[in-house]
């Protein structure tokens, strides 16, 4: 009896110790660590809204967001749409200045919109500053462990493999493919305009430009298998929509024991996308083994890297070659096609609002390339001629300033680091709202909310007081590796479209930018399309 009681006491003691250890760990992660981080920041003069226990500032964020959701005139186009997306960030900036701290649950965020500190952020080593792990984990079904999500040595290795495929010398070799896709695309619009009543067609240009962009990225990066691109992209678009949950930004995940319907849908979509990609990969591998391909595109480089067992390759990729291939293919389809299509769509919307700039771009195209179709197509294959399209470049840069696809710059301090005069503890999440930077009247002037491409007449360095605060492609070592590819694609697609068609806003257009991983038009971008007279 006594021995049984002794055993029971020991069991209860062990269980109690286990429970206490779990409670202490929870207390450390939920209270002690956040309190220590906030204390370090507070001693340096960094203030912010007081957080509540467990939830942090999320209840206040949700309250501000809901109180800000007033009915707006969707038919009136104004470019200061930022308060409707993250009103709490702007309100706190007005209260606490361009650098402040806030919390989502136990996660501590350092909001930074000071241009001088942004310059410091650009200089940080990729080993010290990475993608927030709590943010990237929920998006794993879409981007996997690809370069978008990787940190440290994993990021360095993947950048070494993929970035060279988007250098200018490689992009030059993709120009013909871009032009061929765009010409075929334009012919479908031409036939629709000709067959329409009155020679005018109401087109949802964002949806159709996504198809064009997916075709281009497929042909340029995945070679002869491009016919599968649209099917893959369609699945990825549905997956993106399923993952566009605001709670992910707060770091609140599902803690239920059973998967939700949404999670089941996401898992099923990922399997479908991977099956399509795996077929593409296996077809290419068979071609390579039989000596039937000489293509040196991005897919071939990824395949070669996956098969390579060099000493600089991270250990986890040695036995997960298929996953390495699929993750990077999936993220390139998402990031490479979606962002460029959105930029082209928003640019056409702005030109529809400003027909004088639409005409200025057309005049420049005619002066640089000529008015004949063959002359134009030859001109756009010449990089020197593309660089002479200054007015077009100014319009694209201004479109990226007002409607850049990227909305948030989110980073995590992977180690203790210096940021200007501040010391940032490890684990702090550094947030910057790009549209706010791009509309700062102190940097851009009192007309910061207006479409004025002329501000870029002498380049980005002369467009504003602090050029480092213009970050449509991100900044530093983690800036978008595909920005050269994207800009060249825009400079080929837009001239081909604008030389053939003129645009005005459709009466059915409703202006409602929303954040769903990227800046999307909630109701699409509907434009009236006519042949240029």
From TrEMBL:
GO terms for molecular function: heme binding; iron ion binding; monooxygenase activity; oxidoreductase activity, acting on paired donors, with incorporation or reduction of molecular oxygen. The chain crosses the membrane at residues 6-24. Signal peptide: none annotated. It is found in: Membrane. SUPFAM superfamilies: Cytochrome P450. Its main location: membrane. Gene3D superfamilies: Cytochrome P450. Coiled coil: none annotated. Keywords: Heme, Iron, Membrane, Metal-binding, Monooxygenase, Oxidoreductase, Transmembrane, Transmembrane helix. Heme binds at residue 480. It is a single-pass membrane protein. InterPro entries: Cyt_P450, Cyt_P450_CS, Cyt_P450_E_grp-I, Cyt_P450_sf, Cytochrome_P450_Monooxygen. It holds the Pfam family p450. Its cofactor is heme. GO terms for cellular component: membrane. Belongs to the cytochrome P450 family. This is Cytochrome P450. It comes from Prunus persica (Peach).
